[in-house]
Every structure is written in structure tokens, then in C-alpha cells.
Amino acid sequence: MSVDLAIQATDLTRSFGTFTAVDRITFDVRIGEVFGFLGANGAGKTTAIRMLTGLLAPTGGVATVAGHDISTGAEAIKKNIGYMSQRFSLYEDLTVAENIRLYGGIYDLSPLEIRDRAEAMLARLGLAHAATTQVRSIPLGWRQKLAFSVALLHAPRIVFLDEPTSGVDPVTRRQFWELIYETAAAGTTVLVTTHYMDEAEYCGRVSIMVDGRIGAMGTPAELKERFGVHSIDELFVQLARPGGYAQAPKPGAQG
Amino acid sequence: MTSEHPVVVVDRLGKRFGATPALVDVSFSVQPREIFGLIGPDGAGKTTLFRILATLLVPDAGGATVLGRDVVKELWALRARIGYMPGRFSLYPDLSVEENLRFFASVFGTTIAREHDRIAPIYHQLEPFRTRRASALSGGMKQKLALCCALVHRPEILLLDEPTTGVDAVSRRELWDLLHRLKASGLTIVVSTPYMDEADRCDRVGLIQRGRLLAIDTPWGIIQGFGRALFGVHAADRYRALLALREYPHARTVYPFGATLHYTDSRAADPGLIEREVHDFLASRGLAGVSVAGTSPTVEDSFMELMGTP
To answer: Which residues of A touch B197 (CB under 8 A)?
Structure first.
């Protein structure tokens, strides 16, 4: 694989019985890129991410993540990636410091490394005063920023963010995107999913999955020009409902 | 009740959970056949407000009436007239689509067949999955089933707590189209969402943050209320441009906004002058491909302004 690629997938496929959730997708993500991984519910995003994070074996095709083959190097991949999900990432009944220690331990950091990185992280986030506070009593916005920083604790080469900004206020959402930019500028590759279509425009490039395949891929500006649309939202609707979404509410229409 | 009266009246409502204020002095009213949107992030108090309106929670201060009835004293007169869809998926996962619907109909002493005309627009979309268990539906379909169950007893008002959260952009549009059809059939709808761009689908919205209403107006009124010049700034390297602009002495707010940066200036100067000066400042910092131009605020810009960030 090329040295400046963080992710390289070729004809990556995953079937469950007769159902093909991910159908021969081919794409690259460059090191330090912010890549938006979009698609409707059920389009195959989650299955693709589970393969790229070494949690699910493909049934066809190949992919390398951080230089390791996903079929043979799943353990090496797990050490080189970070993951944060909106639904779950921190233990709410542990304190901030306990969460950091727990994840540091999981990622094989030494106690000294954990201490140094925790201090630096909390200082940077302005959360030093909250080290002994239970995560559940921290405002959601701070929790999301903390979860992101914890996902970066072991200095991964790629971080996967699954709907990281769901439900946060618009100011926090923007602070979160600034953290993403800062991370990418420091050389960590970011792959992010979101249901906020305006957030697609924050990404360097995006792909839009439709029924297990990549329906479109490029920079937001390129895509808008190529498909003659004003926004990624418009393109998303066009791709996900080729017949026009207004006609969808018919008997027999798929949801 | 007659159509001149508001369907919902919320008057200085307050609610605390322990030391945490969930709602503080919230007042608004909703007119018949209006789609009223409560827009705000998680933890803003939206769900607490819905639970009070749905007669499931008693407020600590103030009061509320729905369809002219007090939500605390007259709850039994209200329950059957309200269609409430909670934020968390609340159907029986092990029951099929049809079984869930039949159950909710029977609770209110009716049947699917009798209510068919009211639920038809949504039920048509669910019919192909009639025998599928609710847990096996896609996110969008789950929400449509929940909406159908909230409608099956012919309520006069719908209280929908975040029906579009976590649902993809296409299913969200379909749900909003359904809400507009329901409004056209005479229903009043109070709906909450964390997606600011959905304000446009409401007749009026209340912006809510930390238990307080920041503003109540039409979406257009909210945007008009922004009240100062907003500039869109482009540069080849937007992150470096963002950091540079933060150091500009006259910068008031600088936020990333998709491919653009949204900028407000602390001076009340001529917009043309500000455009030129901001452009020259960024160029002097070595940024390439810089453009600065006045732009229209969105509901999100107004929300951030009302949060009082500068």
C-alpha cells in the first residue's frame, strides 16, 4: 500500500447469508484527512466500520488500516485506532480520572504515560478541576470532548467517530469540529459519521453509501458540482431515493 | 373548545430534579393546527416539558393547560385526547408492527379498522412490514410505527418528543412530510428536535437551552432577530484561517460553518470596509484563496447568539 494512505479498501464485501450488507466498496483515506462516512440507516456504514476496526471479518475483498491487513492484522489494527461513539464511550459511574486510567490500561500504556497524558489532556480541555467527578455529572458537551480525547489517549493513527455530535448544542458542536481539525492537522486521520448533513461540508472528502455500495465520493464542493445540487443534504436525498423521496409513501415502498 | 383559544398554554412553568433546574419560567402558547417546534440540545428540558404536557409529570411551579384542561387537575379528561410519542423508542420490541398497533388501539377502546382513515397515510408505509417484529425495523420505520401508535385513538393534539433523532436525512424528510399532512387534517402538533435545520418545517419555534426559552418566533423571525452583520469567510486552509481570525483584534465571534467560517465583527462599521479589512488581515497572515462576503444567518447562528457566547 501507498505510504500516505491511512485506509485502503478494495472490493471490500460482507454478506450475512443471502444479504450483502457491504458490496465491493473501494476507497482510500489519506493520512491526516477528515473523511465523512455517510449513508442512510441500513446502507452498510456500521458493517463497513466494524470491518475496518477489526471487529468483523470481510467475506470478500481486502483492506488495510494503518498499514495492517484487516483479515490477518486485526489485533495490530486495534492498537493503532481510536473509536468513539455517541451511544457509548465512557463509563458514567466512573470518575473522569478513572475512565482515563481504565482506557490507558486497555491500551497498554504504562502508569507513568497514563499520568502524564491524563494531566496534559485535562489541562488542555480545562477539566483539571473535574478529575474526580463522575462522568454522568459532567455536561454532555464536555463529556463528548472528553470521550474524543480518551479515544486519542494512546496516540492512534486513525480515529473513528460514530455520530460524535448527536444532540449537543451548536456551540459545542463547533468546538468539537475544531478538535477534529486540530487532530487532523497533527497527522491523525479522522473517519466520521453523522446524521447532520451540514456537517458533511466540514469534511475534506465524503463518501455516501447506498444499499451497500459507495454511491458518491469526493470533496463536498466536487460532489455538489458533479451532481448539480446546492447541498450535500440534497445529494443524499437524491442518492437514497432515486425515484424521488416524495413518491416513497406508497404501499409496498421500502423504508 | 373553540378554535379561537390556544390548544396549549404554558404559564411560567418550572421543574427541578434535586438541585438541577430542568425548566425555569417557561411560557408559550400553541394555536390550533399549528406545528410548534421546541428546538434545543440534549438536556435542554424538552423531554421534561413534554412529560408535563402529557400529564405524566407534575410541575413544581406555574401551570399548563392542553385543550383547555389543566394538565395536573384534569389529567383523566386529557389522556385520551392527547397523542404522545416519547423520545425513547417505547413500543414492544417483541410484538409485530400490527400487534403493537392493535395493542395501542385496544388500550383506547378502538380498533385498527375503525381508525383506518386517520392512520392510512402512515399505515400504508408500514403495511409491507406488518408481521415484522418492531425490534427488527429500521430507525425511520420504528419512528413511523410510534407515530402511528400515537395517532390510533384519534387525538386532537400530538406531542412528539424528538421523532427525527438518530434517523437519517431522508427518513427525517418523510416524517416531516407526514406531520404536514396531519396538520392539514386538523391536528395541532408540538414537536421537539435537536436539528436546527428542521426549524424551517415548523410554523413557530421555541429555542430552548438549559431549561429556559431563549426565543419564541417564526423561523423567519428567529433569523431576523440575529440583528447584526454576518460574514462568510473562505480560505484554502480553513483551520488555519479559523485560528488566525480568532487573533484578529476586531473579531467578535468566529465559528466553523461547513466549508465556511461565520464571522461577526465587534465594530459597527460599513460591511464593505469590514470585508476588505478581514480579507487583508488573512492575506497578511499568508492564507491563500481568501474571500469574505456578507451572508444570511441561519437559525443556528441565532441560537448561538442567544446562548450569549461572545
So the answer is: 197-198, 233
Residues of B (180-239) whose Cβ lies below 8 Å from A: 194-197, 209, 238-239
Contact B169 A250 (CB under 8 A): no
ipTM of predicted complex: 0.87
The CA distance from B140 to the nearest CA of chain A, in Å, is: 7
The answer to which of A71-75, A195-199, A250-254, B40-44 has the lowest mean pLDDT is A250-254
Q: Is A248's pLDDT higher than 60?
A: no
For residues A163-172, give the mean pLDDT.
Answer: 89
SS (H, E, C) chain B: CCCCCCCEEEEEEEEEECCEEEEEEEEEEECCCCEEEEECCCCCCHHHHHHHHCCCCCCCEEEEEECCEECCCCHHHHHHHEEEECCCCCCCCCCEHHHHHHHHHHHCCCCCCCCHHHHHHHHHHHHHHCCCEHHHCCHHHHHHHHHHHHHCCCCCEEEECCCCCCCCHHHHHHHHHHHHHHHHCCCEEEEEECCHHHHHHCCEEEEEECCEEEEEECHHHHHHCCCCCCEEEECCCHHHHHHHHHCCCCEEEEEEECCEEEEEECCCCCHHHHHHHHHHHHHHCCCCCCEEEECCCCHHHHHHHHCCCC
Tell me the mean pLDDT in the region A154-168.
92
Mutate to test the interface with A, among B46, B164, B170 (most CBs of A within 10 A): B170
User: Which of A166, A169, A200 is nearest residue B307 as measured by Cβ atoms?
Assistant: A169
